[in-house]
């Protein structure tokens, strides 16, 4: 750290702290994340090490947060990132900010460019949500927090992954149904949820449990069947819901253009095989028709991070926390220098179903008093 002048603390947590710093020679402003090593036996959290590895794979992608440097110091690991002024969640929640159709188009274009670069490099993000969409001082949106990301294995190998990824509100229905065989489709689903959130200025599917989450999804998009989604009834945690037909998206998004609704519907198709890929989303006419995307430099700016309470300040990139219900034996230890570790998480029980769309009576009887773990 002899090359940097430490500035204001931007956020703190059980992992350590994030603070602003300035390079002594160049004057470059950066964000430094200091992560504490709990003890010598455990070593550094594998989440941080995995993110370092993946960010190095993605270095140079314009819409992905840039890891400038990383090193160990005593019982800490220090990560240096480009400084970010805030995140998309802060912009969505700020009712003083008016988002035009061009602004929304610009944010979605940058999100999908970042995802397309991830997928081109065979990286599944697995934690797409508004507060992981970071905003640079010049207005560019960059994807951050790759702690849950994975390099996708060869499709022929059929490698399983945990379904307990993504924050629940952005978790795709196949993951909620327990699928462990997936590729890039859950990333696109989550990006579609962010798209809807930009239009609504609130979360689209704020489920209180996994079953409630499915109920909210089916209430908006209709209940799946073997005809509409082949193989759905064979998923590990399949639960039959009362049949509901999908209402027109125009009812929920009355001010959205037909192109916007067409794109949204193809990003949140219940059947993951029917969802667009990230590069196909970018090729959709939504991005090339009037009004065109707002230049990043003219987009709304989030409130300065230094003006926020420390415990709520958005953090750049690596987040140590996992989504509720996370459970996984890490596939392998990833090392940085001499540090390595493995970790496990325990699941949390699911709560009640959505009041709007409930499991069928047959499945309610099978469930008894205990909801299945999804």
UniProtKB/TrEMBL annotation:
Superkingdom of this protein's organism: Eukaryota
Domain Protein kinase: from-to ranges: 4-287
Primary localization: nucleus
GO biological process: cell division; positive regulation of transcription by RNA polymerase II
Region (Disordered): 294-374
Extent of Polar residues compositional bias: 338-347
Keyword Transferase in annotation: yes
Active site: 127
PROSITE patterns: PROTEIN_KINASE_ATP, PROTEIN_KINASE_DOM, PROTEIN_KINASE_ST
Pfam family name, one: Pkinase
One GO MF term: cyclin-dependent protein serine/threonine kinase activity
Record-linked SMART domains: S_TKc
Entry keywords, A to Z: ATP-binding, Cell cycle, Cell division, Kinase, Nucleotide-binding, Nucleus, Phosphoprotein, Serine/threonine-protein kinase, Transferase
Subcellular location: Nucleus
Binding site for ATP: 10-18, 33-34
EC number: 2.7.11.23
InterPro entries attached to this UniProt entry: CDK, CDK7, Kinase-like_dom_sf, Prot_kinase_dom, Protein_kinase_ATP_BS, Ser/Thr_kinase_AS
CDD domains for the chain: STKc_CDK7
Entry similarity comment: Belongs to the protein kinase superfamily. CMGC Ser/Thr protein kinase family. CDC2/CDKX subfamily.
UniProt-recorded name of the protein: [RNA-polymerase]-subunit kinase
Source organism phylogeny: Eukaryota, Viridiplantae, Chlorophyta, core chlorophytes, Chlorophyceae
